[in-house]
């Protein structure tokens, strides 16, 4: 008995230790990733042959205004010193001000990120809910017409430029049929009916009971979300198909069939559950890609998200904003990796 | 597998249900004008700082200045907040009398104190457009003595030299000289910043509209100013930032916006056929030009400069790539400015160009590069020039680059040819003469970087002539001086000026009195209405 108790205590302690170890590992990964990102982005940003001062004061500013702005940016200091100052401030959460909007970069990102989050989440949900069944179907009906159709759909979704699809979608569903609303997040008529709290229009309008505004927001988000959904569906269905083919060739599937389980059960309960483990990573990566902000979709649909923000900053040599955006994206990737890691453990007992 | 059709059917049903809620779309509200434009250039809405086209249009509709000009004939100058003004005999002191009983949108009365504060503030903050006032000898240190309140509704401005009064008045009509609400700004002041950090995103004016809300890269909302004497017919004007021009077109044709501001020529051709849409346009104070760097030994030859002026197919560019967006114009003063010359002597003449090149000892042509911003229109123009240059044996290599990158290189004088445009900073001819025809110091480390300097061109006596023109108080004589300057630059200058910009907007037919003026701050929606 005594030995059993100690051993259980030991188990707890070792579990805790391994948890702490993993947590420490995670922090190290996060910090090194971010530091690396900052360093690379920072130095690339300083090497590009663009004068960031012009972005602030414009082309016509008199010399003294130009010089003052240059000094304010700290650009008169040596490169290494500039980097040290930047990192020091970044550690305290100060990523500097965007020269374009003059707001703190993180305030700007907090403003634009919810828009991207809204679109990316819906896109991923659509892509997953449709992509997985299609992939399973293609695997089960391998080589049949259904498989070919799914493959064709996937290829189309993956290879046609998304802005073109977006424009065609607008032309057809908005201009011709009038099923959905046009570019923008919400109609101007509704845009002042609610106060932004989360920044996610769908949630804000719903929470404040503005149902008209909510449905208007739905009709605005539907087309771009379906488009992004289609884009991720293409990828997810292809991967699902290949994972499923792999599983369906395994012996346990044959055993299940021999046991007389229904085909439905074999495929959806047994094979898919095993295929789901690697699928998590695929979905997480595709989600992270969408969270980066899909510049083209955001441009076509006048969606004020992260993609547009970073692109615009890049074009204007607004390096603080670009660095801030890069760090946010880096964090998103690392966090999603962590989440998919945790889900892995949940779904696959072997990894525990 | 029966599941497939069922699944698709149910998905289709869900989609149909979700969309049917919004199947009926209304047009924009009758008391609201909705415009789509590209406003990612806006960094501030403080008149002391605004130097960008989109923001100056917002200021034009929301603030008042002492002076205004008639947008159909800019030579007609009149008072806006000022009732009358006088210029002292020595030409150095301007006295303005404000109109009585006027109020800001906040309800505070408009007094000479506000006007004095506004001008002092613009000079003291010393942001990008401050030189428009600073060029009259006003500095941070002396501005409190030079601009003074002399009565409840009276103020004086003292300039350092007897400038042409038109120059001073045009500059006082610029958005940097907008009158701001002193009381309101003092309330929002922090660390004696003249309320700058607050006003960047807020409003303190007296114009026809109030700036109610600005969300960067998303929307700007103007609302009727109840204290403005000539009440606006519309309750609000909304400017939506829609980067993609094809999306603007769809929104316009669908009636979800009333005005589309950034359509390209093909899209304008297409919407012009829509019976609900009309096309409006106005010449702007911007000219398109090639800058020929005189550090390049070939481009430094006068015959080569002239040959290139004969190697541009002006008409073809204006009729195709820049259709609706520009008209042929070869002088540095845009049409509509005092003294602007409107004759365009050059046209594509390959034989003449070849003759000139032979004279320069370059019978077989030469190779040269052109820094080209990668926008569709600039690239298109550059390609057109590439083919006409080639006809005379000049091999033009186009170097596509980002606009800020091209500008950085240009300002360092490292280009061969730069293709760009120049918009006037204020409505006076000196704004362009100062940059195209004057260069006080052509050395590499000169402080000022006018276009003449950027192309390493020493205009010789033209610099002195440009300086003299701003002192000429007789408007007719002054116009004559600018005509001479334009002729000299046209004949021998390192600039191939080929177009004057036209701004074009596609407007729903039910919109009336939507006005595009000669400069962006003159684009006026104050009397716009909808039927």
Search tags:
heterodimer; A: 352 residues; mainly alpha; MetI-like fold; 14 helices; 76% helix; globular; B: 531 residues; alpha+beta; 11-stranded mixed beta sheet; 4-stranded antiparallel beta sheet; 19 helices; 19 strands
- Characterize the largest beta sheet of chain A: strand count, sense, and whether it forms a barrel: none
Q: What is the beta-strand fraction of chain A? A: under 5%
Enumerate how many helices of chain A there are, as a single number.
14
Q: Would you identify the CATH architecture of the largest domain in chain A?
A: Orthogonal Bundle
CATH topology of the largest domain in chain A, what is it called?
Answer: MetI-like fold
CATH class wording of the largest domain in chain A: Mainly Alpha
Q: Which pair of protein chains has the largest interface, and what are the residue counts?
A: A-B, 64 and 60 residues
β-strand number of chain B: 19
Helix content of chain B: 25-40%
Q: What's the average pLDDT of chain B?
A: 91
Domain module count of chain A? 2
Q: What is the percentage of strand-forming residues of chain B?
A: 15-25%
């Amino acid at each position: 008995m005594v030995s059993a108790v100690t051993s259980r205590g030991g188990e707890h302690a070792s579990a805790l230790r391994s948890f702490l170890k993993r947590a420490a590992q995670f922090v190290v990964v996060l910090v090194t990733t971010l530091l690396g990102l900052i360093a690379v982005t920072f130095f690339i940003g300083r090497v590009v042959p663009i004068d960031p001062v012009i972005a602030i004061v414009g082309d016509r500013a008199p010399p003294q205004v130009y010089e003052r702005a240059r000094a304010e940016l700290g650009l008169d200091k040596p490169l290494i010193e500039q980097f040290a100052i930047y990192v020091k401030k970044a550690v305290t959460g100060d990523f500097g001000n965007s020269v374009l909007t003059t707001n703190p970069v993180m305030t700007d990102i907090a403003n634009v990120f919810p828009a991207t989050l809204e679109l990316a989440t819906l896109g991923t949900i659509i892509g997953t809910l449709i992509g997985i069944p299609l992939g399973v179907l293609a695997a089960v009906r391998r080589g049949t017409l259904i498989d070919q159709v799914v493959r064709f759909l996937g290829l189309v979704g993956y290879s046609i430029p998304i802005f073109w699809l977006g424009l065609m979608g607008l032309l057809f569903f908005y201009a011709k049929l009038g099923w959905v609303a046009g570019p923008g997040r919400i109609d101007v008529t509704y845009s002042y009916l609610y106060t932004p709290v989360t920044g996610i229009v769908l949630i804000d309008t719903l929470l404040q009971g503005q149902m008209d505004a909510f449905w208007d927001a739905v009709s605005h988000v539907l087309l771009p979300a379906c488009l992004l959904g289609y884009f991720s569906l293409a990828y997810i269905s292809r991967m699902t198909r290949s994972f499923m083919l792999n599983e369906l060739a395994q012996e346990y599937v044959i055993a299940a069939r021999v046991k007389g389980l229904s085909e439905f059960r074999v495929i959806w309960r047994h094979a898919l559950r095993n295929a789901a483990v690697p699928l998590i990573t695929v979905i997480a990566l595709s989600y992270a890609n969408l969270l980066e902000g899909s510049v083209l979709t955001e441009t076509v649909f006048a969606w004020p998200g992260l993609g547009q923000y970073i692109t615009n900053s890049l074009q204007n040599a607004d390096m603080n904003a670009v660095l801030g955006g890069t760090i946010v994206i880096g964090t998103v990737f690392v966090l999603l990796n962590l989440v998919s890691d945790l889900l892995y453990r949940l779904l696959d007992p072997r990894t525990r | 597998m029966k599941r497939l059709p069922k699944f698709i059917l149910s998905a289709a049903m869900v989609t149909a249900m979700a969309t049917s809620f919004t199947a009926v779309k209304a047009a924009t509200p009758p008391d609201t004008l909705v415009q789509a434009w590209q406003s990612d250039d806006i960094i501030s809405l403080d008149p002391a700082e605004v130097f960008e086209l989109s923001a100056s249009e917002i200021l034009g509709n929301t603030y008042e200045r002492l002076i205004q000009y008639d947008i159909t004939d800019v030579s007609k100058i009149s008072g806006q907040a000022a009732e009358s003004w006088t210029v002292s005999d020595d030409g150095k002191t301007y006295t303005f009398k404000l109109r009585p009983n006027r109020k800001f949108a906040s309800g505070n009365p408009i007094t000479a104190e506000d006007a004095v504060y506004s001008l002092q503030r613009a000079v003291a903050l010393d942001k990008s457009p401050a030189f428009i006032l600073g060029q009259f000898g006003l500095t941070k240190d002396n501005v409190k003595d030079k601009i003074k309140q002399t009565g409840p509704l009276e103020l004086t401005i003292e300039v350092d030299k007897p400038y042409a009064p038109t120059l001073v008045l045009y500059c006082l009509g610029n958005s940097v000289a907008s009158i701001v609400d002193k009381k309101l700004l003092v309330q929002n002041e922090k660390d004696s910043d003249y309320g700058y950090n607050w006003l960047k995103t807020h409003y303190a004016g007296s114009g026809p509209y109030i700036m109610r809300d600005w969300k960067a890269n998303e929307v700007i909302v103007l609302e009727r100013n109840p204290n403005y004497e000539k009440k606006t017919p519309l309750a609000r004007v909304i400017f939506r930032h829609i980067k993609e021009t094809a999306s603007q077109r769809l929104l316009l044709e669908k009636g979800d916006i009333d005005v589309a501001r950034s359509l390209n020529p093909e899209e304008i051709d297409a919407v012009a056929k829509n019976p609900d849409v009309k096309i409006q346009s106005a010449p702007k104070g911007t000219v398109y030009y090639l800058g020929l760097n005189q550090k390049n030994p070939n481009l430094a030859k006068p015959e080569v400069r002239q040959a290139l002026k004969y190697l541009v197919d002006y008409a073809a560019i204006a009729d195709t790539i820049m259709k609706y967006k520009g008209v042929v114009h070869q002088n540095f003063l845009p049409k509509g400015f005092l003294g602007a010359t409107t004759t365009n002597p050059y046209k594509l003449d390959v034989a003449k160009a070849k003759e000139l090149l032979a004279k320069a000892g370059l019978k077989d042509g030469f190779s040269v590069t052109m820094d080209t911003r990668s926008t569709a229109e600039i690239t298109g123009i550059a390609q057109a020039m590439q083919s006409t240059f080639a006809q005379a044996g000049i091999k033009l290599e186009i170097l596509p680059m980002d606009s800020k990158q091209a500008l950085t290189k240009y300002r360092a004088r490292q280009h061969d040819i730069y293709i760009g445009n120049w918009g006037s900073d204020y409505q006076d001819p000196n704004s362009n003469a100062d940059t195209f025809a004057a260069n006080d110091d052509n050395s590499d480390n000169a402080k000022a970087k006018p276009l003449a300097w950027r192309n390493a061109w020493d205009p010789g006596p033209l610099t002195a002539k440009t300086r003299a023109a701003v002192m000429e108080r007789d408007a007719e004589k002054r116009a004559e001086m600018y005509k001479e300057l334009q002729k000299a630059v046209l004949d021998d200058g390192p600039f191939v000026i080929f177009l004057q910009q036209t701004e074009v907007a596609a407007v729903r037919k039910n919109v009336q009195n939507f006005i595009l003026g000669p400069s962006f701050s003159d684009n006026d929606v104050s009397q716009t209405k909808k039927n």
